[in-house]
Amino acid sequence: MIPQTGSGRPDGFFSGTLCRCFCGHAPESSCLNFLAHLLLAGDNEDLRLGAMLGDFVRGREALKKFDTGVRSGIMLHRHIDTYTDSLPAVAELRRQFRSPFRRYAGIIIDLAFDHELVLRWEAFSDIPIEQFDLEIRDLLARNDDLLPPNLKSFMKYADRRGLFASYREQAEILHSLKGISRRFSRPNPLGRVGEVWHDVEPPIAAAFDPIFQEIQSEVTGWLKSKSTITGS
Q: End-to-end CA distance of the chain, in Å?
């Protein structure tokens, strides 16, 4: 069994991890990690920009400042979050965590899934992840006026650490978890995940492909339904 906490809702899967530290989400909240959101957005720049903005744009009123394409990207981001949290396989992963890690299970799973995604990158993308990184940074630079301060802070962190490509290294995952641990005011076990990584990583790795493929299928259906409605 993966290393379960006591009371409280377990942290949501694909919960944004580093994003949570910059957008102010509590560990019980849910938002998908940046890398997976970006990949699921495909080649559409508006959807990609919405994927990055999704965890920083709250409520309906805030959507009005963006054009239709970017709004669609933000809404897709929110839909993926909701859908992913509803998956039985995700709930089962959360249930496997023991105390004191269950409350922070989503953060650990998020980074472990980023790790698995980078390790399998060639199966999901035709371009190297280093080129993907550059494309995202160029997109954000061209839309700097739309970026909230917290997202800019995250990207400065990403540039210093060589994200997202460096997620292929276990050491970077553990370093990120230690950094996240220091951002919480209350004591937490995230700085000690290295002690249980050998228990945490295998079941998450085994669950990655079926869960991610299910999310990809859902995204394809969502985009098709929106295209049918708008006629685009």
A: 47
Whether a cis peptide bond, with omega within 30° of 0, leads into 14 is no
Are the C-beta atoms of residues 203 and 101 closer than 8 Å to each other?
no
Q: What percent of the chain has pLDDT over 70?
A: 84
CA-to-CA dists, residue 13 to 29, 79, 81, 90, 152, angstroms: 10, 14, 8, 6, 24
Give the pLDDT of residue 33.
76
SS3 content of the chain, % helix, strand, coil (to 5): 70, 0, 30
pLDDT digits (tens, 9 = 90+) for 2-49: 554 333 333 444 444 444 444 544 443 334 478 999 999 999 999 999
Alpha helices in 66-196 (DSSP H): 68-86, 88-95, 105-119, 121-124, 129-142, 149-161, 170-183
Which amino acid is located at 62 in the chain?
A: A
Side-chain-side CA neighbours of 52 within 13 Å: the count stands at 26
Q: Radius of gyration over alpha carbons of the chain, in Å?
A: 17
Confidence of residue 232 (pLDDT cuts 50, 70, 90): low
Q: What CA–CA distance (Å, rounded) separates 232 from 227?
A: 5
Q: Is the peptide bond before 202 cis (omega within 30 degrees of 0)?
A: no
Contacts with 12 (C-beta within 8 Å, 6 or more apart), sequence order: 28, 29, 30, 31, 81, 84, 85, 106
